[in-house]
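Supplementary Text 2. Reproducibility record for the structural model of the 189-residue chain.

All settings were left at their defaults, and a single model was retained for analysis rather than an ensemble. We include the record here because the model underlies the residue-level annotations in Supplementary Table 4.
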Amino acid sequence: MISPRKLFSITLALVLTSATQTYAGVYDTLEFGDSKADVKSKLHASKLVTIEESDSIFGVLGLSGIFKCNHKLADLSYSLHFAWKKNELSEVILKSDPVKQAQYYAELEPAWEKGIKLLDQAYGPAQSTNDFPSQFKHSSDGMIFSHLWSVDDSTSVMIGTGVIQNRYFLAIRYLEPSAIKKLKKTKTK
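Retained model, structure tokens:
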């Protein structure tokens, strides 16, 4: 009999692999450059996500946070968030459900460690690595990423933590390489 921990690892590896084995390396069947209508349609058809809100809320809130991932990563649940460039998909961010400040290290650090191992298995060793982001480096709402993988010429993946209104989350961010170049230019200024 397979232990629950081993079964979880196998399931998560399959989910990550199926979620990243796409044309553009983005979640499920999403591709960079998809329109909002394409993203909505593809996610409605996806078996990897569940819609948490009614269709009527799309016009008010957009698509971010509406789609919940059906599988957990290290006992954390995730929702999908998006960034757009000229009304075309340019980033997909998996954000875990937020935890309280007191739970930052106990809940997010083990999930971060497991996430790194799984991303290493899927993409090879990260090109850039750093320690688990200190809770105290989060001075305001935002994200700090510790690891970067270059999947191919069309996709990069980052993992780290974030905070919104004093609630912390783990983030896995899929983005176009042009976004990485833009981030590097911003850091050097």
